[in-house]
TrEMBL record:
PROSITE patterns: PYRIDINE_REDOX_1
Entry binding sites for NAD(+): 188-195, 211, 277
Keyword Nucleus recorded: no
Protein keywords: Cytoplasm, Disulfide bond, FAD, Flavoprotein, NAD, Nucleotide-binding, Oxidoreductase, Redox-active center
Official protein name in the record: Dihydrolipoyl dehydrogenase
UniProt source species: Thiohalophilus thiocyanatoxydans
Length: 479
């Protein structure tokens, strides 16, 4: 006997749980399967993002930011405190509580939407049958008209630096240290390297980040990457570009050998986080007699409607090509559900916000100046520094800028790039503007509340036509 559903979703991360909820809203009878167990051995839907990614990392970024403010900024505001004490155990417990509350919320949403949740490993078989092996090794077979694969991704491992869970760890290990490492090495100056590096540097670790590429944040606009490099360096993050790690050995310490422009180098650390990207979980998703088409890197191939090569089998989220971001997966989860229901739905891949939650925050949407040059698109630009914004000055958060790129002929906003206070929220204004095809003039003619950080976006838009108010006029841009 097998249980029959309209839709089965394999994976309850942001892509999978959102797909399941949207399918239920559309009237489908839905099951969602997830194999993740928390540290107490309990099923914990929410995927990488809620359990070991977006949420715990942001909890530690917030806590470590408070700690650093108390240490370095309170005195400037006339607030003196006695001896500052770091209670890392409480900080980590708080992080876990935030995670538990949110993953518990997903279980409640499943119940409220009458989605059957199966804790265990799902394997797709012929004719859309799905076998679930639960955590006690019991097998159940489910059947569905449609199957959505949303099994996500896992950290990439370097062959010469296998994870040992103690000294050489992935991002999950790097979120769970029970003491602050004195010397922390990180391989990879990508998003995880910068976020986790910031957490432990703020809490007192000496952090060195080894990055193979010569360019820092190559996908960011060059002006923003330059500011980020300067500001993170001033905070004490030692980012070494052009570093090719050759070997990693462990005994009492972690010894890392690498080469750079100067020759062979050696470093010793107490802990090493390897953050060199993630791989899709596409192996072992299907029984051996099903040939699911993947690309060379293991990403499941889909068409514009998230259809795989298998009949009525779809894939979304980190499992398919594209930026590995929770919000991108969530949008795909909604879109695939609507397409299964016969509705029109599409994701705007040209307007995906990317945020790096360092301090200050880095965020962008659309094309960078370099990408526009490479594509031969004529553009105009405007920018405005947070140092000339009243609210930023009141907050003592004056580092950074917002830069706008607009089409030289139509004035349509092609890209918005920012580094500064509150940029994870400010970028949403740019995403909305671009979603409605706004021109820089549309935003220049919009009223923003004073005094707010968002006036920096307004001024950057005004600056496209050389009419920013709170800065000296640029000679090149007289209106
Ligand atoms: P996942 O979240 O990976 O979920 C897949 C789920 O499927 C997992 O629970 C997995 O255990 C389960 N699964 C796999 N195979 C099976 C199977 N056969 N049967 C049953 N279950 C299975 N993104 C952002 O947008 N913002 C951030 O701030 C951010 N921060 C991050 C910080 C860190 C440290 C990390 C590691 C990632 C971060 N990300 C962030 C990326 C984000 O977590 C992923 O893009 C997102 O989780 C992908 O969602 P998904 O649903 O595709 O897959
Ligand atoms: P990443 O792709 O952002 O960065 C990996 C970095 O490692 C790159 O700069 C790469 O050049 C470098 N690298 C690769 N191999 C190397 C080697 N052998 N030696 C030295 N450097 C090497 O990947 P990540 O930081 O691991 O993050 C994984 C994914 O998780 C990303 O796709 C990201 O989008 C997502 N994520 C997003 C957020 C966010 O949205 N704020 C936060 C964390 C993670």
């Amino acid at each position: 006997m097998s249980e029959q559903y309209d839709v089965i979703v394999i994976g309850a991360g942001p892509a999978g749980y959102v797909a399941a909820i949207r399918c239920a809203q559309l009237g489908f009878n839905v099951a969602c399967i997830d194999d993740y167990l928390d540290e107490q051995g309990q099923p914990s839907p929410g995927g990488t993002c809620l359990n070991i990614g977006c949420i715990p990392s942001k909890a530690l970024l917030e806590s470590s930011h408070h700690y650093q403010q108390a240490e370095k900024q309170f005195a400037e505001h006339g607030i003196r405190i006695g001896q500052l004490v770091l209670d890392l155990a409480t900080m980590q417990n708080r992080k876990q509580k935030v995670v538990r509350d949110l993953t518990g919320g997903i279980q409640s949403l499943f119940k409220a939407n009458q989605i059957a949740f199966y804790a265990g490993r799902g394997t797709l078989k012929q004719n859309n049958r799905v076998e679930v092996i639960d955590h006690d090794n019991n097998s159940t077979t489910l059947n569905a008209e449609h199957v959505i694969l949303a099994s996500g991704s896992r950290p990439a491992e370097l062959p010469f630096a296998p994870f040992d869970g103690k000294q050489v760890v992935d991002s999950t290990g790097g979120l769970a240290f029970d003491s602050v490492p004195q010397r922390l090495g990180i391989i990879g100056a990508g998003v995880i390297g910068l976020e986790l590096g910031s957490v432990w540097q703020r809490l007192g670790a000496e952090v060195i980040v080894l990055e193979a590429q010569e360019r820092f944040l190559p996908d960011a606009d060059p002006a923003i990457a330059k500011q980020a490099s300067k500001l993170l360096g001033q905070q004490g993050l030692d980012i070494r570009l052009g570093s090719n790690v050759e070997s990693v050995n462990t005994d009492k310490t972690v010894q890392v050998a690498y080469t750079d422009g100067q020759g062979s180098q050696h470093l010793e650390f107490d802990k090493l986080i390897v953050a060199v990207g993630r791989r899709p979980n596409s192996e072992a998703l299907c029984a051996g007699d099903l040939a699911l088409t993947t690309d060379q890197r293991g990403f499941v191939q889909v068409d514009d409607h998230y259809r795989t090569n298998l009949d009525r089998v779809y894939a979304v989220g980190d499992l398919i090509p594209g930026p590995m971001l929770a919000h991108k997966g969530m949008e795909e989860g909604m879109a695939v559900a609507e397409q299964i229901a016969g509705q029109f739905a599409e994701v705007d891949y040209d307007n995906i916000p990317l945020v790096i939650y360092t301090h200050p925050e880095i965020a962008w949407t659309g094309r960078s100046e370099q990408q526009l040059k490479e594509a031969g698109i004529d553009y105009t630009s405007g920018q405005f520094p947070f140092s000339a914004n009243g609210r930023a000055r009141a907050a003592g958060e004056t580092d950074g800028l917002i830069k706008v790129l607009a089409d030289a002929h139509t004035d349509r906003v092609l890209g918005v790039h920012m580094i500064g206070p509150g940029c994870s929220e400010l970028i949403g204004q740019a995403v909305i503007a671009r979603a409605f095809g706004a021109s820089s003039e549309d935003l220049a003619l919009t009223m923003f509340a004073h005094p707010t950080l968002s006036e920096t976006l307004h001024e950057a838009m005004l600056d496209v036509a050389g009419r920013a108010i709170h800065r000296a006029p640029s000679r090149k841009k007289r209106p």
